[in-house]
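We close this part of the discussion by returning to an individual protein. In the encoding step, the backbone of a single protein was reduced to a row of integers, each denoting a local shape. The sequence in question and its structure tokens are set out directly beneath this paragraph.
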Amino acid sequence: MSANYTREIIVSNTPANAYQALTTAFDKWWTTSCNTISETGDKITFRFGSTYWVMRVNSLVPDNSVELECIEAHHEHEGLSTSIANEWEGTKLKWTIQKMGDKTRIVLVHDGLVPSLNCFEVCEQGWDYFFVNSLKQHLDSGKGMPFEIQK
């Protein structure tokens, strides 16, 4: 059985602010090179230097969930096979948000990011950094650690 990448964080913030971070504030915790989303069908591009992913919004439920589907991928990583370039295509990012007292629980399932993919280890490390650490810091302290293209 291949398990999708799945993590959860508990933040000291509201579901509304968590939802905002997952729709209009990706630049505060994931990458500063992206646009925002507001409705189903919107497309957003996340850039990390020459690597980029284009996602389509499949579902938005305010303060509850966000689902994006990768419709175009160009993933480059030094030391890894060029076969990783399109591995994210067809995968889905599914975030669920749940109020827990004065805290908020956010679960990310990257549906399709499984150990059999050549990019799994580097992508797992990336999500652990950006989702588990940077998003949590952004929502807990207002200061995330997004990827910034060096000028």
